[in-house]
Specification:
Layout (H helix, E strand, L loop, with lengths): L6 H12 L3 E4 L4 E4 L5 E4 L8 H13 L1
Antiparallel strand pairs: 1-2, 2-3
Length: about 60
């Protein structure tokens, strides 16, 4: 399944899916939903060079 054009972001999403998270497709972006109900927006076509770092920061905040 397609998660993001960025291979590093797609790899992180697949890792979280194996750990019990689920992925929900939206019109423009997908959502990575934690077992507790919190979610992180997955950039499908990131144009920012720091997109991977921003995505990882959002995931870290989701664990807090």
């Amino acid at each position: 399944m397609y998660y993001s054009k960025n291979k590093d972001i797609a790899k992180i999403v697949r890792k979280h899916l194996r750990n019990g998270w689920c992925f929900r497709r939206g019109k423009k972006h997908g959502r990575l939903v934690a077992p507790g109900g919190r979610f992180v927006i997955v950039p499908s076509t990131p144009s920012d060079g720091r997109a991977i770092y921003n995505f990882m920061g959002e995931l870290r905040r989701c664990y807090e």
